């Protein structure tokens, strides 16, 4: 009797759960099912935007052209007289054959990166080097920006969580960067990054005597990524901080009081109480932040446009400027797969409990 | 004596850190404010000045016409109105559907939780650009207006986020609360909206604020879906269409003025709701 009661209860619970999930899944079906299905389908065709040309089914061609990479050794250029490798007189660097000499031509591969390994020089070639670079850019961007955002966000949340006058105002101040419209904040930073002293950073740099000539943060290839990361860290740290702050609120004060009585140091309290109890909220914040960073678009589009791509801004370029819808969809699917892999890795690593 | 000194030192250090945080968070915003009060000529001064100054005399000279210009621009004011409607509706929809789903996923026992959570998360794994064409087709097929289109499509990023965050919070609430409510004869749904929901107030406010801001700032969908219906343009799109009095260059001062004006409602919103972020639990049963 008691057993059938409890199984009844379980069935009731299951029924209620499904009912509660209906609205969310209904919305999902309406706004996600068709668009996503279409993306998968289009990725196997050569569909182009706004042309009269018939769309053809091309199988995996789009994926092949995006993902084909090859690595070749670059032979040294040998001086015929001395039999030694030619050294550039101006730079003092050893001279190697140009990548175009060694990379396959049909289909055409272009150089992505060159690097030295065990005294040999290699070239990494790809059929769509811009896409491979976009993937690398996005991964670097994600790793660094999420790392800094988490550290800063945690720090800010801990400070704002302590008792002091004006913490209410501080909570609003904390969210200001996140509240500034992304497209506009990118323009604002672009203005601050200006390559003359009309830009904030060059003005401060010169005033403090740190730099003698003006830096052009957004055209210098070694400064582009750090600049973009700085912008994103400023913009999105509040997101992390607020989620972490809400998580901190869930930790009962009694635990700290008890630890205080036991004479545990603040650091020990942080390691044994705060961090473990914060883990679920931190994990969710990290997952969403990482997924968002991997899809980064606005900052790259506004600040670097076609000088340097993220995966999503390359997708945009192929769709809107090049009108290659098939290829653009394939890019979308590849991004999806990369993000999915990241999500699973994350949940494993953080031990996110889904059941 | 030394203990007092130690306390004082700690306090000074704390406020020092606090000050650095505030400067870091607010300085770029101050720079936008500063730029919004400058004329074209003042903006291109080298070196740039920390307060608007006259290019010739160096006297402080504040220029407010950028603000007048944006408020005389009907597009911008209408944009504010549209943004408010769209962001509020999306947030409310996301919170309702999201908290239902999160209660099921976080507190009820049923089979298929993991696939459900992953499916919801998978919605946010495509860049917005990728689904743009497909979404546009759906919207045209359903014949939705521009505002409704934005409200519904913004759920694509607000719903997974609210569902996941709220699920984590529901899961953290002690089982005893639900059990004792059931002993008292409350149905599971009553337990949900009368007991659990008030307890998750901090999470509701937090996710609500973050979703609202995300919707308020969204650009790409808004640009696409309002391309035909100019009246429905939201603020980010309206700002991009600023043409400026001198048509030869973009009106940077006005853009910055708009950035400042558009941020204010959010700050006010946070100020109104910020107490709730904390109050929810301290007033609740867990602290007891």
Features:
heterodimer, A: 355 residues, MetI-like fold, 2 domains, globular, B: 288 residues, mainly alpha, MetI-like_sf (chain B), membrane (chain B)
Give a written overview of the molecule.
- The complex is a heterodimer of chains A (355) and B (288).
- Chain A is mainly alpha-helical and 355 residues long.
- In chain A, 64% of the residues lie in helices and 6% in strands.
- Chain A folds into two domains: 70-126, no CATH class; 130-350, MetI-like fold (Orthogonal Bundle), CATH 1.10.3720.
- Chain A has helices at residues 2-42, 61-67, 99-102, 129-161, 167-179, 182-192, 200-207, 221-249, 253-261, 266-294, 298-303, 311-321, 325-350, and strands at residues 69-74, 110-117, 120-126.
- In chain A, strands 1-3-2 form a three-stranded antiparallel beta sheet.
- The longest helix of chain A is centred in the first third of the chain and has 41 residues, at 2-42.
- Chain B contains 14 helices and no strands.
- The radius of gyration of chain B is 24 Å and the shape is flat.
- Mean pLDDT of chain B is 84; it is low at 280-288.
- Classes of the chains: A mainly alpha (355), B mainly alpha (288).
Quick description:
The complex is a heterodimer of chains A (355) and B (288). Chain A is mostly helical and 355 residues long.
CATH H level, superfamily name of the largest domain in chain A: MetI-like
What is the class of the largest domain in chain B in the CATH system? Mainly Alpha
Mean pLDDT of chain B: 84
Give the class-level CATH name of the largest domain in chain A: Mainly Alpha
> What is the mean pLDDT of chain A?
85
End-to-end gap of chain B: 37 Å
The residue fraction in helices of chain B comes out at over 70%
Spatial extent as radius of gyration of chain B: 24 Å
Tell me which oligomeric state these chains represent.
heterodimer
**Cα gyration radius of chain A (Å):** 27 Å
Q: How many structural domains does the protein architecture of chain A include?
A: 2
Instruction: Kindly state the percentage of residues in helix of chain A.
Output: 55-70%
Based on Cα principal axes, name the global outline of chain B: flat
Give the number of DSSP strands of chain A: 3
**SS summary, helix count of chain A:** 13
Judging by the overall fold, what is the CATH architecture of the largest domain in chain B? Answer: Orthogonal Bundle
